[in-house]
Amino acid sequence: MFNKISIIGCGLIGSSILRAVEEKKIALKISAYDKSLSVTNYLKKNFSAEICINISDVVKESDLVIIASPLSSYKEILLSIQSSLKENVILTDTGSAKKEVNKIISNLNLKNVNWIASHPIAGTEYSGPEAGFSSLFKNRWCILSADEKATKDKIKALENFWIKLGSKTKLMTFEDHDYVLSLTSHLPHAVAYSIVKTAINNQDKFKDDVIQYSAGGLRDFTRIAASDPLMWKDIFIDNSENILKVLDNYSMNLNEIKDAIRNKDSKKLLEIFSSTKKVRKEIIEAGQDTDKPGFGRK
Amino acid sequence: MFNKISIIGCGLIGSSILRAVEEKKIALKISAYDKSLSVTNYLKKNFSAEICINISDVVKESDLVIIASPLSSYKEILLSIQSSLKENVILTDTGSAKKEVNKIISNLNLKNVNWIASHPIAGTEYSGPEAGFSSLFKNRWCILSADEKATKDKIKALENFWIKLGSKTKLMTFEDHDYVLSLTSHLPHAVAYSIVKTAINNQDKFKDDVIQYSAGGLRDFTRIAASDPLMWKDIFIDNSENILKVLDNYSMNLNEIKDAIRNKDSKKLLEIFSSTKKVRKEIIEAGQDTDKPGFGRK
Q1: Helix, strand, coil % (nearest 5) of chain B?
Q2: pLDDT at res. A203
Q3: Between A16 and which of A136, A200, B13, B273 could a Cys-Cys bridge form, CB atoms 3.0 to 4.6 Å apart?
Q4: Domains in chain B, ordered, with CATH?
Q5: Chain-chain contact of A218 with B183 (C-beta, under 8 angstroms)
Q6: What is the mean pLDDT of chain A?
Q7: Do A214 and B283 touch (CB under 8 A)?
Q8: What is the ipTM of this complex?
Q9: Cβ neighbours of residue B141 under 8 Å, at least 6 residues apart?
Q10: Mean of the per-residue pLDDT values of chain B
């Protein structure tokens, strides 16, 4: 139980945390801030938390400060709040990439601050506070990466916080997190953007047909490619090193398929397609998806 | 209403047609054939249709012959059944590519046969007769491509057949079909295979982590990449010209994203990501997916 929790940035993720924290009464006091006036007004109407107009006010006396805004806003936020942070505060975030953020925090050389990054692997293709809901984190993983100066009891406290929101937690180094996520999330997004851009070309006379018959595979990519552009722009820049390396491997694998198609190499194609089929089983066994048929849904 | 319908190949698609035809009583007589002995035994146990052991028997006196087997098996099947086909029969299939098949049929120079290709855009990541179900085609599109020698009333009869199975039908030329499907279905599959092969590398010490945290995007690709290898090998070889062209455009778009990441070009990335976000709206407006949040599902 925290005395006071503060949330900075109340879009899909931040507002979902706010809803869950209010609903589950995880803190005696809750404060929230968003730089957008319309979001601020929405928060005032829909939440009982203290909604601050001034960013430095929001973190005052807070035991847990959660930054849930785009990665590119972190530096400005940290500069604005650093002198108002309570001694021994837990400072966390919800970002999808950690390397650059970690550098910023390290350069600020904050004293008596427990920096423990969080990455709740949860979200939808919608954004904004109206899209949030309190059960967003239920049964989802939250990966934590702790700065070396963070104390063990604070790491435990943050883990408990996410567990109260329904999540399963995992500790990982900042570097490992960025590499694993470049494969599980950042690569799929880069690919989805490219595929939708290729398939839906406004100059193509078949554009309407492509949309009409998109249920054969394309449809699922349009969902991923509809994620928040601002958030994803930041992730790609932040984790660029890993993503570029992974994209190079990906291009190699794609060229292997291209060559096999060009050479009408049945054996090679069968080999590739059979190898990826096995992976599906492992995903289901790891409880990361159901085994219900997913195509052909209405 | 047909007097007799015959189905050749009873995997996911063929057995689903068989189930629907029996359930909806669309024909007085139904016959089915599968070259696999275990499938044949399954059919005998689970269906009231006439299950044939000899392929030339299955099409005898049939008004509608449906080939629902992998594309690479068509030639052998057509050679086996051509002399047993009833005069003025409707010959159709369920394949995902049409060009090569059309060539085979044209070379056979069949007399008094109405060749009208069907492509029901329906399926799951599972295969085999146990995976079929009678409502598979409900509310799904079925694209028909008619040979010039097919008569109008036969085209209408085949359209009605699919409508009775619950589908919406659309007439398209063979060439247009292959191009549109290369974008909506074949490209997404090529990409999904490459991405799963890139992300899940048995040599990578993070392999288990990648599977564990696959909900951030990767999971959805593993589903597509689990489709039937044999069927997809055939599609890629059959529609190779379109697919290779489309993959080249795709690589160009991917390189554009790579360059933007390398140059940390925020403006360009935002521009790309915003353009693909709009497409999602069009897909939903075309009734091809729901607007319910699809990430974060359990």
Answers
A1: 55, 15, 30
A2: 79
A3: A136
A4: 2-172 (3.40.50.720), 177-285 (1.10.3660.10)
A5: yes
A6: 92
A7: yes
A8: 0.86
A9: A212, A213, A215, B120, B121, B167, B168, B169, B170
A10: 92
